[in-house]
User: What shape does this take?
Amino acid sequence: NVQERSVNVGLQKLKEASEFVEKLKIQLKEQEVVVRAEEKKTSALLDKVMIEKGKADKKAEVVNGQKSDCLAEAAKINAEKAEAQVELDKALPFLRDAEAACNSIAKKDIVEIKANRKPMDIIKLTFDGLQILMNKKVI
Assistant: This one.
């Protein structure tokens, strides 16, 4: 009797477990459908991301090429700037000397030159240079 009851309880448990397994199989099939649908969405999204990544990589190549060109141009400009600075440094003392000479001209010097009706060519060239330095029209 005890044995029979134990067997019956065991069979009942097996039956319940079997029913539970069947329910789980149904839920598993339902979940498989959902997983497949999500897998398709994920795959499509991954394809889209890969296409966009390819576009971004191509754009990065173009940008890197432009960057290289810009860096080369900047180096060239800096070299030209340094060269121009050297030339400017050489010319500045002459400019300062010329400015000092212009500032040393007195009114009596101008009156004397105006009185000279036929100035020598060197005087004409000097005054033309002054006109240029003062941004005035050369006569």
Notes: Helices lie at 2-103, 107-115, 121-133. The CA atoms of residues 38 and 135 lie 78 Å apart.
